[in-house]
Amino acid sequence: MKSIIKTAALVYLCISLLLSVIVSGYILPPYEVITRRAPFLVLEFSRCTVAGVEPDGHIYGFDAGGGYVGFGYDAQAFPVGSRAVTLFVWNPFNRYCDDIIARYDLFVFN
Fold it and tell me: Fewer CB in a 10 Å sphere around the end CB: N or C, the chain?
């Protein structure tokens, strides 16, 4: 019984890893994978460039696939023109296209 559980857990982790690589590497359009991800845990590494500041002070940018990424209001941490590597953790319990349960800005390069 324990070997069945270990095998099932290993298969789950392998499929989650494969989906994460597909999304982060833009092998397929990320939207196609994200909207079909449940029940798997997908981690997306996104390379973003800070593009500008909106009139209300909100900083925004775009990832390599052209997707919009918001960076909050800290202009010193995210200067325009800098690049960031962001980790998105997608909710494995549904298929909503905007349900990110955690986000981490890992590196910011000027």
Answer: N
Q: What is the pLDDT of residues 7-45, one digit of tens each?
A: 999 999 999 999 999 988 877 777 888 888 999 999 999
What's this model's pTM, rounded to 2 decimal places? 0.84
* Sequence ranges of the domains in the chain: 2-109
Query: What is the CB neighbour count within 10 angstroms for residue 96?
Result: 13
Q: How far is 39 from 92, CA to CA, in rounded Å?
A: 5
CA distance 41 to 19: 8
Q: How far is CA 9 from the centre of its chain?
A: 23
* Residue labelled with tokens 């000027």: 110
Distance CA 16, CA 22 (A): 10
